[in-house]
Write a structure and sequence with these properties.
This protein has 3 helices and 4 strands. It is of the alpha+beta class and 91 residues long. The protein has a 4-stranded mixed sheet with strand order 3-2-1-4, with no helix packed on it. Helix 1 packs parallel to helix 2.
C-alpha cells in the first residue's frame, strides 16, 4: 500500500489534523487526531503492509515514518508526487 499524510484544519485557526490517504485509490484511510510525530508513528507501526509513505518536508513526519515504518520508502519534498515514479515498485 502507498499512503501519504495530508494536513488540514477543519475550521479556520483550529487544531490541524493529519488525513491518511491511500494513493492508489485516492480514498481516505484514517484521520489522525493531530500532526504530531507520536500519532503518525503509532498509526504506522500497526500497519506493516504500507511499503511507501509520501510526505512533505515536515521533520516530524520524517522521524515518524523512519521509526514507525522502517520498511517504507519515503519519496518526499515539493515534488513528492513526481518522485513516486523513481520509487522501486513492490507490485
Amino acid at each position: 500500500m502507498i499512503a501519504g499524510p495530508r494536513v488540514r484544519a477543519f475550521k479556520k485557526r483550529q487544531k490541524y489534523r493529519s488525513i491518511m490517504v491511500d494513493l492508489h485509490t485516492g480514498k481516505i484511510i484514517d484521520l489522525l487526531p493531530d500532526r504530531e510525530e507520536d500519532s503518525l508513528r503509532d498509526w504506522l507501526q500497526v500497519r506493516p503492509e504500507i511499503k511507501i509513505v509520501t510526505r512533505d518536508r515536515y521533520r516530524k513526519y520524517h522521524r515518524a515514518i523512519t521509526s514507525g515504518a522502517p520498511q517504507a520508502q519515503q519519496p518526499g519534498g515539493r515534488s513528492r508526487n513526481r518522485s513516486l515514479a523513481s520509487v522501486k515498485k513492490p507490485w
